[in-house]
């Protein structure tokens, strides 16, 4: 179960958040025995340090958590979470030292640090519970945590247990919980209802491809989220080498992210008309797999030459984007673990995005900073358009040369949106190693920033 804040009436242990430059002043106000104990434990106020003081019965009576310096805090995020894992069992209440502007983020990080993926192996839970700091929006933070929990669980689950049917079930469970409507088009019905590229990519798998379509809300701007749901990507006939296939259970990270974001939106009751579209497929190898040099005709009518069957994500997204555009959405936002080029450009921690909407960009950039959810704008560089035009068809799904791979993928997707404002996120969806509040494994990216952005758009 996702972590929540402790009941404020619970007996609690006072927690002092101590920066390195504030330790001396704090210690001077304490009895000598306390100052000596803290010094003997090697506590300096560095990020990740924690120390407790015991009462006469040997139980923790006071706790300290290191908060580093301004310089060390600038090198990371969720600093309090680094200490939470080192505190003994108990319920803690922050009583001093945490700046008001940092309370929401540090409380969020504390709850996120409780995440454990224990479907296949039980793991030790976080023993330290937290009472929500004064002035924070506890229900909103808990909704963010639960949405992130959902995203992580979906990504972390191996493809044998998280194929298109299971991804559909996750969406159905979410729709039922929030009284949303959901429709799913499966298998050959995709051809009958004109989603030819979703069908082409997924038809070789034993588990049928499908388009998941969920809607919620009846007032406010129309926002459509489109998430890439490639539940496993072998590369198709252009088969990936083993080293590249190892993490391909996470190739549905875009779908996992939009489902987590959808939960956040619905749980916090943001006044928008939300639609979630997820093309859910497996890119597999079989006699009926789509082939290099095939030319596919998309829902929009644009033809696409297949120059690499491993560039399949943009194909399934394209049909879903065309449907979203037909509906007259005010904003369409796609999220996908789309290109290795994005990782080369910005690494695993930043979420690169594409948009030409200055209102959206301003709101998102502010939200990314405020929510400790970093994003980085990339260009829809129109002069690169000829790179995705092969001559024999309208579009090329894998331009030769290897230059600007994330940009050309984004330009490809933009061709399928004509009438709506569009933003595309080329996320990684994976935390390569443990970090405060971010366990190694599946990770949501840009979802908290987008939640705040959608709230801003709803109020305009």
From TrEMBL:
Top-rank taxon, per record: Bacteria
Membrane-spanning residues: none
A GO cellular component annotation in the UniProt record: cytoplasm
Organism: Sulfitobacter brevis
GO biological process: proteolysis
Protein name, as recorded: Leucyl aminopeptidase
Name of one Pfam family that matches: Peptidase_M17_N_1
CDD domains per the UniProt record, alphabetical: Peptidase_M17 (cd00433)
Lineage: Bacteria, Pseudomonadati, Pseudomonadota, Alphaproteobacteria, Rhodobacterales
Cytosol aminopeptidase domain segment(s): 308-315
Alphabetized UniProt keyword annotations: Aminopeptidase, Hydrolase, Manganese, Protease
Family recorded in the similarity comment: Belongs to the peptidase M17 family.
Keyword check for Hydrolase: yes
Chaperone is among the record's keywords: no
GO MF annotations in UniProt: manganese ion binding; metalloaminopeptidase activity
Gene3D superfamilies the record matches: Leucine Aminopeptidase, subunit E, domain 1, Zn peptidases
């Amino acid at each position: 179960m996702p972590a929540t804040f402790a009941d404020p009436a619970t007996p609690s242990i006072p927690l002092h958040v101590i920066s390195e430059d504030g330790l001396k002043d704090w210690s001077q106000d304490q009895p000598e025995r306390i100052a000596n104990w803290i010094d003997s434990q090697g506590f300096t106020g560095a990020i990740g340090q924690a120390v407790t003081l015991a009462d006469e019965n040997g139980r923790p009576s006071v706790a300290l958590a290191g908060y580093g310096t301004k310089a060390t805090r600038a090198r990371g995020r969720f600093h309090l979470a680094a200490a939470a894992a080192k505190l003994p069992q108990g319920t803690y209440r922050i009583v001093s030292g945490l700046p008001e502007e940092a309370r929401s983020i540090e409380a969020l990080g504390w709850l996120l640090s409780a995440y454990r993926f224990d479907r296949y192996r039980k793991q030790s839970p976080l023993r330290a519970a937290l009472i929500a700091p004064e002035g924070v929006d506890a229900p909103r933070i808990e909704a963010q945590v639960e949405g992130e929990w959902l995203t992580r669980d979906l990504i972390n689950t191996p493809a044998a247990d998280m194929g298109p049917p299971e991804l559909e079930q996750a969406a159905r469970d979410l729709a039922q919980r929030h009284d949303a409507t959901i429709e799913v088009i499966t298998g050959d019905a995709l051809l009958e209802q004109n989603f030819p590229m979703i069908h082409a990519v997924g038809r070789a798998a034993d588990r049928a491809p499908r388009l998941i379509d969920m809607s919620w809300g009846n007032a406010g701007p129309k926002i459509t989220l489109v998430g890439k749901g490639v539940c496993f990507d072998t590369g198709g006939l252009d088969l990936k080498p083993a080293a590249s296939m190892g993490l391909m259970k996470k190739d549905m990270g875009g779908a996992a992210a939009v489902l987590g974001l959808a939960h956040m939106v619905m749980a916090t009751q943001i006044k928008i008309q939300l639609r979630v579209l997820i093309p859910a497929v497996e890119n597999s190898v079989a006699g009926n797999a789509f082939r290099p040099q095939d030319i596919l005709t998309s829902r929009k009518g644009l033809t696409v030459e297949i120059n690499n069957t491993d560039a399949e994500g943009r194909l399934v997204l394209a049909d879903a984007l065309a449907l979203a555009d037909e509906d007259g959405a005010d904003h369409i936002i796609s999220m996908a673990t789309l290109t290795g080029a994005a990782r080369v450009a910005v690494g695993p921690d930043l979420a690169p995005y594409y948009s030409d909407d200055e209102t959206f960009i301003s709101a998102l950039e502010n939200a990314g900073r405020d929510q400790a959810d970093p994003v980085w704008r990339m260009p829809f560089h129109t002069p690169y358009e000829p790179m995705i035009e092969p001559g024999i068809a309208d579009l090329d799904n894998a331009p030769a040369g290897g230059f600007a791979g994330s940009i050309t993928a984004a330009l490809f997707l933009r061709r399928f949106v004509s009438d709506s404002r569009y933003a595309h996120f080329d996320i990684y969806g994976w935390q390569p190693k443990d970090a405060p509040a971010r366990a190694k494994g599946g990770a949501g990216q840009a979802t908290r920033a987008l939640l705040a952005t959608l709230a801003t758009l709803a109020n305009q």
